[in-house]
Amino acid sequence: MSNHRILVIDDEPDILYTIREICHVGGWEPKLASNGKQGCDLFTVYRPNLVIVDYHMPGFDGLTTVKKIRQQDEAVSILVLTVDERQEIAEKFMTAGATDFAVKPIRSPDLISRIKINLKINEIQRKHMNEMQQVFVDKGISTATLSIICDFLKEQKEAVSIEQITAGVDLAYQTVHRYLQYLVEEGRVNAVPHYGKVGRPKNKYALK
After folding, report:
1. Which pLDDT score is estimated for 41?
2. What class, spelled out in words, does domain 6-207 have in CATH?
3. Three-class DSSP category at 148
4. What distances in angstroms separate CA 61 from CA 10, 11, 58, 205, one per listed residue?
5. Coil, strand, or helix at residue 176?
């Protein structure tokens, strides 16, 4: 089993069982919590590298749980489970401190890939903290995730779509969208309209 510590918080027993089994396939032994309050208490003791937390829960919902966990630890990766794919929901969670998203129902290969990249983000965040560097450059923008997306863009010979970036870095569409928006606003990335045969143009992105 891996030395990485994972905490899963969900009020549905079937989901907890499914994620535990998926974690076992990936080589991780997770701790489980059936609600946000229990999860926050367990987090204080267990200090995981990654928290997987459901959005809709009684008592402490996912948003409240993310805020409370982020207050305790700047570097931990927080992966939110949701059936709601709206970007405005993602923005709320990322502002609260979420790292990434996974959409229910959960497919084993997708969740394993998402866990791996978020554990990598945690390692980079811890390194930044150890080197006394800034972990977050803005609300909802971590230096670790930013570097992963920028490194991918550096490797590209031409502008790429958000779907290509999402597939290339193994992060959720909502996460990549938030970071590209930030990079464009900061003047570090160009958004180039790409006109297909039909429909509205879609942006492609390239580092300046």
Report:
1. 96
2. alpha beta
3. helix
4. 10, 10, 6, 35
5. helix
